[in-house]
């Protein structure tokens, strides 16, 4: 079978295609025929040596994927051959808050990921995918969709009529748009071009501010909320947006920090958090139980993930470049097998 491995050179890494034997599932393990995987910002950060996590030496990259159960090992009871499944981003985080030990089961980072024709995973990491959803759509869910779902519900569940601010047109932001609409919330967004603003409005965003033509976009967001500010912010960029995100948030509102696309700094004054009662929380993916709850909600409303482009396995390098360009609207997917 074909598999991609990350070859390190200093702090950076290069994905390299190899021919390998088909793996065999052990106790409580499942052999999966991978149909599709999707890329996240952190996958390109790993190649640049910028991702702050321990990466398995010569490991298979990419945490997000979906496929079919080919065979099961001894003691497996959660799935059977032929089941259509997706893989949760951590093989050990089943429910409850995150604890440091869960890092050891981080798919595509601490352990082998999914950019291969077949992989072996612990049964506890697997979730069944809805019949209406394609493998390419299901592959887009584990990191970006679960992160958006968890962020919107981490401090307090999003309520109908509340307002959410999202940033850009990446996977997490667009899933946050879709889920916020399912909850009956109003969605505002900032983006870098009028073209992307139009695309966001087509996807259901109520109002969009172009931050290039309107650098004081926080003033516009406040105006769109009658001066009150939004209830929640899905903070993607980090350094270049966090201060304005706080200024755009209502007293007692929530900022869920899920990315660092513009850098690791930011300089949010503690006095702003204190005097306005803001909750600023890091929100990284979520447990398998959240994944399953999210899938139930998506199936109830037949929510289809927004996919930017699908690349064949042979052109996985082009998929990485597409994500690196920042021009995507939605998820970048690699079709591994038909």
UniProtKB/TrEMBL annotation:
<dbReference type="InterPro" id="IPR052711">
    <property type="entry name" value="Zinc_ADH-like"/>
</dbReference>
<dbReference type="InterPro" id="IPR020843">
    <property type="entry name" value="ER"/>
</dbReference>
<dbReference type="InterPro" id="IPR013154">
    <property type="entry name" value="ADH-like_N"/>
</dbReference>
<dbReference type="InterPro" id="IPR036291">
    <property type="entry name" value="NAD(P)-bd_dom_sf"/>
</dbReference>
<dbReference type="GO" id="GO:0016491">
    <property type="term" value="F:oxidoreductase activity"/>
</dbReference>
<dbReference type="Pfam" id="PF00107">
    <property type="entry name" value="ADH_zinc_N"/>
</dbReference>
<protein>
    <recommendedName>
        <fullName>Enoyl reductase (ER) domain-containing protein</fullName>
    </recommendedName>
</protein>
<dbReference type="InterPro" id="IPR011032">
    <property type="entry name" value="GroES-like_sf"/>
</dbReference>
<feature type="domain" description="Enoyl reductase (ER)">
    <location>
        <begin position="10"/>
        <end position="334"/>
    </location>
</feature>
<dbReference type="InterPro" id="IPR013149">
    <property type="entry name" value="ADH-like_C"/>
</dbReference>
<dbReference type="Pfam" id="PF08240">
    <property type="entry name" value="ADH_N"/>
</dbReference>
